[in-house]
Amino acid sequence: MSYSKCVCQKCGSNYATVAKTDLDIQNEPCPKCGEKQLKLSGSLSTQEMSSMFSGGG
User: What residues form DSSP beta bridges with 15?
Assistant: First the structure.
Protein backbone atom coordinates (compact mmCIF):
# COMPACT_ATOMS: atom_id res chain seq x y z
CA MET A 1 0.00 0.00 0.00
CA SER A 2 1.43 3.38 -0.94
CA TYR A 3 0.80 6.59 0.94
CA SER A 4 0.63 10.17 -0.24
CA LYS A 5 0.95 13.45 1.63
CA CYS A 6 -1.99 15.78 1.90
CA VAL A 7 -2.26 19.24 3.37
CA CYS A 8 -5.23 21.14 4.73
CA GLN A 9 -5.72 24.33 2.71
CA LYS A 10 -7.25 26.06 5.76
CA CYS A 11 -4.94 25.28 8.70
CA GLY A 12 -1.84 23.98 6.90
CA SER A 13 -1.68 20.63 8.73
CA ASN A 14 0.00 17.73 6.88
CA TYR A 15 -1.22 14.14 6.88
CA ALA A 16 -0.56 10.79 5.24
CA THR A 17 -3.33 9.29 3.12
CA VAL A 18 -3.95 6.31 0.88
CA ALA A 19 -6.08 8.50 -1.42
CA LYS A 20 -4.81 8.61 -4.99
CA THR A 21 -6.54 11.78 -6.22
CA ASP A 22 -7.87 15.05 -4.81
CA LEU A 23 -11.36 13.76 -5.65
CA ASP A 24 -10.81 10.87 -3.24
CA ILE A 25 -10.21 13.22 -0.30
CA GLN A 26 -12.43 16.18 -1.19
CA ASN A 27 -15.11 15.11 1.30
CA GLU A 28 -12.72 14.12 4.09
CA PRO A 29 -12.56 16.57 7.01
CA CYS A 30 -9.21 17.72 8.39
CA PRO A 31 -8.55 15.89 11.70
CA LYS A 32 -7.35 19.18 13.22
CA CYS A 33 -9.79 21.89 12.09
CA GLY A 34 -12.64 19.84 10.59
CA GLU A 35 -12.73 21.71 7.28
CA LYS A 36 -13.07 19.70 4.06
CA GLN A 37 -10.16 21.39 2.31
CA LEU A 38 -7.56 18.61 2.02
CA LYS A 39 -5.35 18.53 -1.08
CA LEU A 40 -2.71 16.01 -2.14
CA SER A 41 0.83 17.33 -2.07
CA GLY A 42 2.92 14.41 -3.37
CA SER A 43 3.98 10.92 -2.43
CA LEU A 44 5.43 10.02 0.93
CA SER A 45 9.13 9.11 0.88
CA THR A 46 10.50 6.09 2.72
CA GLN A 47 12.19 8.40 5.24
CA GLU A 48 8.94 10.28 5.91
CA MET A 49 7.08 6.99 6.34
CA SER A 50 9.69 5.81 8.80
CA SER A 51 9.51 8.98 10.90
CA MET A 52 5.70 8.97 10.93
CA PHE A 53 5.38 5.40 12.10
CA SER A 54 8.41 5.09 14.36
CA GLY A 55 6.85 5.15 17.78
CA GLY A 56 7.79 7.02 20.81
CA GLY A 57 6.14 7.24 24.06
Answer: 6
Model pTM score: 0.76
Distance of CA 17 to the CA centre of its chain: 5
Please name the residues in contact with 8: beta carbons below 8 A apart, sequence gap of 6 or more.
14, 15, 30, 32, 33, 35, 37, 38, 39
Among 51, 36, 35, 49, smallest CA distance to 5 is for 49
CA distance 21 to 4: 9
pLDDT digits (tens, 9 = 90+) for 1-10: 688 999 999 9
